[in-house]
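User: Can you predict the 3D structure for this chain?
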Amino acid sequence: MENFKISNKGSATLFKNSFLEKLTRTNFIVPVLLYSIIGIVVFIYSARTFSMSIYQLLLLFFAGWLVFTLFEYLIHRFLFHFHADTEKQKELQYKIHGVHHHFPKDKDRLAMPVVLSLLLAAIFFFLFMILPGKSGYPFFAGFISGYAAYLFIHYAVHRYRQPHNMLNILWKHHSLHHYKSENTAFGVSNPLWDYIFGTLPEKKSIKKEDRERLPDE
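Assistant: Here is the predicted structure, written as structure tokens:
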């Protein structure tokens, strides 16, 4: 990731074309509501249409949710933070993710543009249809609900102060990624895969006062 001074105020212009620039900005509530509704509708459709027990449906739903968290981790680590060598690669990386690190509190760039996310959702839906016995439907419902939850959590940790409860781990974890250790802490909705793949920040190298300050930046 190209070095730049992090700014907690302001925004950046990615395209001179006003239409393209507008497409890069998204009100987070739109995709959160959209994918939450899709997840609920697909799950209800699965329950009413297919001969599965509620336990099977819930198992597939949460399996889909878990797989999404893995997908979230892998995309963040290997696509958003790919090693850029050339100027064109650095420019591409900045447009897809670097701008978010540059202006982490820019509320209009805390979610992927809806047009692009709908295309990806359609691809995953048809991909999951290869699962046997119509199990792809509740699995997809869990996957897309996981995405909605991720969007909500990502917005919350960037726009609101750290809560004084067990959820504060999410604020601390993601703030360390942005402000102290961008090559670690790739999980946003949870730190599970950072534990598994060994990408947790080395907290011993970060001063205690810095760790306590980060979530409220």
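The longest helix spans residues 54-80. Residues 98 and 123 are 25 Å apart (CA to CA).
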